[in-house]
Amino acid sequence: MKLYYSPGACSLSPHIVLREGGFDFQLERVDLKTRQTEHGRDYRTVHPLGCVPALELDDGQVLTEGPAIVQYLADRVPDTQLAPAPGTLARYRLMEWLNFISTELHKGFGGLFNPAFPEQAKTIFRTLLQARLDEAQRRLGNQTYVLGDTFTVADAYLFTVLGWGKYVGVDLAAWPGLAAYCGRVAARPAVQAALAAEGLR
C-alpha cells in the first residue's frame, strides 16, 4: 500500500493508523500547491481533486476520504481494536465521532487556513469552532480516548485536527481536557513515528 500525504494535513490520521496497525506501506509526499508528488507525478492522476489523503491499494485501486480509509485499515487488522466490530453500537459511536470531527471540526479549521477569506469571516469561523471544541471536550469528558480506554481510528483523526490550532491562532489551553488528550495521544510510539516521518518533530 502507498499513502499519499502532505505533512501535518488530514493525511496524518491514516498515517498514524497505518503505523498503529503494523502495516507494510510506503509514503509519497504531495505538494498541495503544485499538485505534484515527490517523484514528479501529477497527483491529480491519483486523486482528481488533488486532495490528500489517498491510499493506493496493492491491486492498484485508490481509496480516498480519511474516515473511509481509516475504517478500511482498521477492519484489515481487527485484533488491534482500532475500530469496534461492524454492526455493534460501539462501531456506530466511532462513526458518530468520525462524522463530528469531519464536518464540525475539520471544516471549521479549514476556513481559517484559506488566505482568501477576509478576517471578518475568519472571526465568524473561530466563534463557531469554539462552540464545537466545547462540545468535543464535553463528549470526551474524563475518558482516555474518545471511546474509552482503547485507542481507535477516531483518536488519530481528532489528534490530527486539533493539532492545527497552533497554525491558525486557536490555543487549546482554553480547552484543558483537549490539550491533555493531545498530550496522551502524542506520547504513543506510533504517533511519534508518524510525526517524525513527516518532519513534524
UniProtKB/TrEMBL annotation:
One of its GO terms (molecular function) is transferase activity. Residues 87-201 form the GST C-terminal domain. Residues 1-81 form the GST N-terminal domain. SUPFAM superfamilies: GST C-terminal domain-like (SSF47616), Thioredoxin-like (SSF52833). InterPro entries: Glutathione-S-Trfase_C-like (IPR010987), Glutathione-S-Trfase_C_sf (IPR036282), Glutathione_S-Trfase (IPR040079), Glutathione_S-Trfase_N (IPR004045), GST_C (IPR004046), Thioredoxin-like_sf (IPR036249). The keyword Transcription does not apply. PROSITE patterns: GST_CTER, GST_NTER. Keywords: Transferase. It comes from the Bacteria. This is Glutathione S-transferase. It comes from Thermomonas hydrothermalis. The lineage of its organism: Bacteria, Pseudomonadati, Pseudomonadota, Gammaproteobacteria, Lysobacterales.
